[in-house]
Amino acid sequence: MEVTCECETVRFTTPTPSPLKVYHCHCIECRKQSSSAYGTSAIFPATGLFPLSADLASKLRLWTRPADSGRTVDCYFCKECGVRVLHRIRDPDGTERETVSVKGGLVTGLDWTGAAHIYTRSAVVEVPEGVERWEGALGEMEGRR
Asked: Which domain holds residue 18?
């Protein structure tokens, strides 16, 4: 799948033809980074994308923040337009998660059906009935240890 930021400076192909899972996250951090009611992430294997190529790395800035879980979130965004592109989580010992979260709105042709709503305890909009929903993190989130 093709991924492009708003100004199209950052562009790459996902490591697999479809994501492992799509999440709509209602946590406060995702609301802030998306400037919306929730953030959408398409989860892909990190292999094939990480380590980042020199070309892609040269177009991204990295901002790192602590997570409530004790983990660290590496947040990558476009140096030109500032759009958040992807996240990768590291465990307290520095081990990187085997998956990467690509911001859903940047993935051309992403199928949004079947997305799980997570951290719904923080939701500021109504979560539709009948969808997969979790008050906090999904117990078996893709790439979670």
From this structure: 2-122
